[in-house]
Amino acid sequence: MLRRISNAGEWFIRSGIQQPDGGVARYFHTDRAQNAPVSTEITGYTASALCQLYALTGKGVYLERARAAAQFLSRAAWNHARRTMPFELSEPAFAYFFDCGIIVRGLLAVWRATGESEFAETASAVGHHMLSDFRDGDGFHPVLELPSKSATRRDPLRWSRSTGCYQLKAALAWLELAEADGEARFREAYEESLDWALHSYDNFLPGHHERARVMDRLHAFSYFLEGMLPRADEACCRAALSDGIGRVARLLREIGPEFERSDVYAQLLRVRVYADRTGAVPVDGSAAAEEASRLEEFQAEDGGFWFGRRKGEWLPYRNPVSTAFAVQALAVWHGAAASIADLV
């Protein structure tokens, strides 16, 4: 297991997926041998993942690259004048609520590891951006146009362009901010999001008539399960976790022979282990072992993880998020002492 973690860490450092300025590409096109554009969300995820790799291995290079990712987000990506965090710098036409939450959590992970106040200050600013600019009557707008900050038209068949229970993962950023600075407004926003997600999640799956799209929605639904973990001791969350884990596992096994995503295996495995550790939902050992074994198959020779495969054929993408989720899932499954607060 240490070899798998080491190989994945080397991929983050040596593959070129992270640019010299700290920004991280959305994925690597294996068929074209080139990176996709840099994404602020993926840079946030990678900052968190590098901090965890540093905690697991003690290697300073991971903290160095995590700091570079945070500096990119704080100094290059965050628009101080307009108080916005764009989706991509090459085309700063949109801002995503979900992405902002991931970015806040990445910045806070690096702040906790380094103590550098710049990252906590930027995280707070982005958290306020989420509260003030995305607010809507039925939750939070998923996407804003920039620079106007006007809401885009929603698409019910595209989860990332809709409101939904998956947004609870982004709301974890507010809970972490509240714990960092004691601001009650952030904690209240998380609790509001949790209540809304619990009352709306039942209709999220399957959510699409195409089975491949249902697999995509399993990825998003797993974000909802992750977002509940800090409240896993509450009866309503315990029930939703148990129900949700069962739904994801069933649909993953039904659709997997046609199309499977490594991040869904990783997310399901992580949630199983963390829910068991909190005492909320006992882990199904045989199912978790099967998921861990399937997940290991996705690691490529260079250490990165393939995004997915269709009918046994690899799709031409190595993915930072898939790699980050897989490393953490396999680490916690094999007994590494990561806590829920370390969830990437």
How are the SSEs placed, and which strands pair?
Layout: H1 2-14, E1 24-25, E2 28-29, E3 34-35, E4 38-39, H2 40-57, H3 60-77, E5 94-96, H4 97-114, H5 117-133, E6 135-136, E7 139-140, E8 143-145, E9 150-151, H6 168-181, H7 184-200, H8 211-228, H9 235-255, E10 259-261, H10 262-277, H11 285-296, E11 308-310, E12 313-314, E13 317-318, H12 320-333
Antiparallel strand pairs: 1-4, 2-3, 2-13, 5-8, 6-7, 8-9, 10-11, 11-12
Overview of this structure, please?
The protein has 344 residues and is mainly alpha-helical. It has one domain (2-342): Glycosyltransferase, CATH 1.50.10. Helix content is 57%, strand content 9%. The chain contains 12 helices and 13 strands. The protein has helices at 2-14, 40-57, 60-77, 97-114, 117-133, 168-181, 184-200, 211-228, 235-255, 262-277, 285-296, 320-333; strands spanning 24-25, 28-29, 34-35, 38-39, 94-96, 135-136, 139-140, 143-145, 150-151, 259-261, 308-310, 313-314, 317-318. Strands 3-2-13 form a 3-stranded antiparallel sheet. The model has no long low-confidence stretch (mean pLDDT 94).
Q: Please give the radius of gyration in angstroms.
A: 18 Å
Strand residues, percent: 5-15%
Percentage of residues in helical conformation: 55-70%
How would a textbook summarize the main sheet?
Answer: 3 strands, antiparallel
Q: Looking at CATH, which topology would you report? A: Glycosyltransferase
Unreliably modeled segments: none
Secondary-structure-based class equals mainly alpha
- The CATH class is Mainly Alpha
> Based on the structure given, which CATH architecture is correct?
Alpha/alpha barrel
* Number of beta-strand segments: 13
Shape: globular
Order of the strands making up the biggest sheet: 3-2-13
Total DSSP helices: 12
Number of domains: 1
* SSE succession: HEEEEHHEHHEEEEHHHHEHHEEEH
